[in-house]
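Table S5 (text form). Sequence records supplied for joint modeling of the two-component complex.
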Amino acid sequence: ETGVTQSPTHLIKTRGQQVTLRCSSQSGHNTVSWYQQALGQGPQFIFQYYREEENGRGNFPPRFSGLQFPNYSSELNVNALELDDSALYLCASSSSPAGLYGYTFGSGTRLTVV
Amino acid sequence: DAKTTQPNSMESNEEEPVHLPCNHSTISGTDYIHWYRQLPSQGPEYVIHGLTSNVNNRMASLAIAEDRKSSTLILHRATLRDAAVYYCILRRSGGSNYKLTFGKGTLLTVNP
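The corresponding structure-token record, covering 226 residues in total, follows.
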């Protein structure tokens, strides 16, 4: 059973640029969520996708957007990068939208905006 | 979302039991209690969850107070690999609230 894989592991971007982060869900999982984790803080929910539709969103501006593909892999896109977007971005998958039996997280993408 | 309160940090010795407390006095009847942990340089890892009864799995035990206003995650024999930040999270069943709301968690240090 493969886990959740994210790419790239590290990334440096310039303020104002756009970035795309990728996530491959655990086999058999149809739901994917994205989280942002600033240094020293707990992860903050960005949004969740179930069967290619967004079905939940946290307090993040529209410049944070996502996609889920038919194979349940996912992308997180961030436009007009700001310095405060520097964080660890985590992808999590589960076998149902409610995730009551747990989410499987990837190791994250460390984004640095300069 | 109902709020949880955890100590900022705890310390344990290797091979001793560890009891990690969590207070959730505003818990509702449909809130499940979930625990995740995050090892250094990794994403969070699901540990255990429960609703009313105590739960055991290969990683840990979860003891839930009778009034459900508090719970305790029990690691029966701590190892160095258990050093991590432990998060206690409430998840409401039903509805469309699918997010995990993480606090700052408890940083567990395990001494050799």
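Note: Chain B has a mean pLDDT of 92.
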